[in-house]
């Protein structure tokens, strides 16, 4: 799930019209957080991520930015354990162990 959100944020970064500031800045920040977690970085403060998601949902002019905020919010609410596993370089508990999963997903 984390990789799917990361790929979506990369897409938004490439296709954002940049007409409003929350979308390009917020999605870049989220992408930086996910890339940092991928490299074993520290987990950000959940309240900061929730505030960022809220700002994206309410401040973006188009659906692309609003959806990015919603996806971010749900990732931290419902898939926090996958974020922890992602940070540790382990497959999420919802996926059966596969020695080559990082090669396929990464």
Can you tell me about this structure?
With 106 residues, the protein is mainly α. 71% of the residues lie in helices and 0% in strands. The protein is elongated, with a radius of gyration of 14 Å. The two termini are 12 Å apart.
Short overview:
The protein is mostly helical. The chain contains six helices and no strands.
The amount of helix comes to over 70%
Oligomer: single chain
Strand-pairing-aware structural class:
mainly alpha
Ends apart, CA distance between termini: 12 Å
Low-confidence stretches: none
Major β-sheet annotation: none
> What share of residues are in beta strands?
under 5%
* Rg over alpha carbons: 14 Å
Shape: elongated
Count of separate DSSP helical elements: 6
Order of helices and strands: HHHHHH
Number of strands: 0
Average predicted confidence as pLDDT: 86
Which key phrases capture this entry?
106 residues, mainly alpha
What is the element layout, followed by pairings?
Elements: H1 2-15, H2 22-38, H3 46-59, H4 63-78, H5 80-88, H6 101-105
Helix pairs in contact: 1-2, 1-4, 2-3, 2-4, 3-4
């Amino acid at each position: 799930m984390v990789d799917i959100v990361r790929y979506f944020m990369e897409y938004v970064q490439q296709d954002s019209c940049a007409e409003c500031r929350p979308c390009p800045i917020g999605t870049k920040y989220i992408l930086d957080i996910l890339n940092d977690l991928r490299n074993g970085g520290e987990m950000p403060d959940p309240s900061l991520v929730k505030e960022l998601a809220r700002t994206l949902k309410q401040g973006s002019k188009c659906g692309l930015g609003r959806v990015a905020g919603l996806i971010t919010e749900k990732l931290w609410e419902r898939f926090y354990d996958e974020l922890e596993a992602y940070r540790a370089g382990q497959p999420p508990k919802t996926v059966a162990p596969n020695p080559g999963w990082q090669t396929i997903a990464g």
